[in-house]
Amino acid sequence: MPTESLYYKTVRKELAAWEKRMLKNPGITNRASKALQSKVHKLVPQRAQDLVTASVRTLVKSIISGSGMIDRSEPDDRPALAESDYLAERAFAAYHKTAVAQGIGFGLGGVLINLADLPALMSVKVKFLFDCAKLYGYDVRDESERLFMLYVFQLAFCGDARRLEIFPIIKQWDDHAAEMPLDWEKLQIEYRDYMDIAKLLQLLPVVGSVAGGTANHNLMKKLQATAMNCYRLRYMARMEK
Q1: How far apart are the C-alpha atoms of 177 and 170, rounded to whole Å?
Q2: Phi and psi for 141 in degrees, rounded to 5?
Q3: What is the pTM of this model?
Q4: Which of 26, 103, 127, 220 could be cross-linked to 160 through a Cys-Cys bond (beta carbons 3.0 to 4.6 Å apart)?
């Protein structure tokens, strides 16, 4: 394992590259993506859209309340970043395996069975976020930390325009956490639009299981990269104070 100083240097480079991607202005591809989303949205069954909305409501309530997710254990006091990264990778591997298996399994069923994958996947995402926060030394008993998770979730699953609004909030969180209200309706709309394209193929017969497993793989990988980098960003800023 590299020394801490070398590890920090590597992380700084990775975070700089990630931040550059986060702040990249939307271009022609973004407009084309929005047009495609509008078309896809019309093809998604209303029941699926309603379920996404209900799932997001449940997500917000479960994270804000911390229901069933908060234990009494104290978080580690500023664990080594290399250790946090390693443990977060291990935790992700287990959740990723579960999510892919769910996507494949639900994809083998009909439309109604497929719809059950939406709340199931949401549950896996929420559990990973709670684990990730604790592994980087943040106290999930603090409501502001649970609110931060929702911003991380939004950053992972939103359009380019919304990404440019959210990233500065994420980056300045420790200085302005108390001033950050949550617009859950925007979260729901952005997530629904993101999920429309990712999950539509899963509703189709024959190819549903492959599409379901692939979609869940991609969605979880996106959440992993976003969550880990958000906490690494805060970790590095906290270390330098």
Answers
A1: 9
A2: -75, -15
A3: 0.82
A4: 26
